[in-house]
Amino acid sequence: MRAPRRAYRCVGPHHVIAVVQTANHGVAIRTAADFSEWAAAQRAEELKEPFTFVIGMDGALRLAPRRSEHLACASGGRVLGAGEVGFVSEAGRWMVTEVSNQSTGYCPDVTSWPAVAQALDQADLGHPGYFTHPVLFRRCPGCQQHNIVREGHFVCVFCDADLPRRWNVDPNAEDLDTP
């Protein structure tokens, strides 16, 4: 059974919401030409670092500098995926070298990969076909804190309660593929 597409809301620190009003929003990348134009505007040193990305509700990849807040990259809206992504140009074609779902603002599940892959395919960006650095986010049912599961250890770092095996960070997240 395939996991449903999910619309993620911001679940990160509330002080980040104020950043959206003043921050540079992500640049929408829908085609290979969009990406080439965007990449040409970046400094060579910047292209060596991963970038912040979100997949907007329209399915488009949006990119912002690495230390940007995901919420700002998404202009404050819901997303289909979020994380960090790195690129390299090989034989005249841009490729994704690394991609993660590392976003403490949205805490997307690893099941967001299909939305990420579709956006990368739409922009004609070669990619590995999976998150190279998957992150498992869970909300503790006891203390309600957000956790990153490391080495398969599903225990809350704040209160030692057991964490659920399934993604549960935002109980109000909208599954888009359910009737």
UniProtKB/TrEMBL annotation:
**Would you tell me the protein name for this molecule?**
Uncharacterized protein
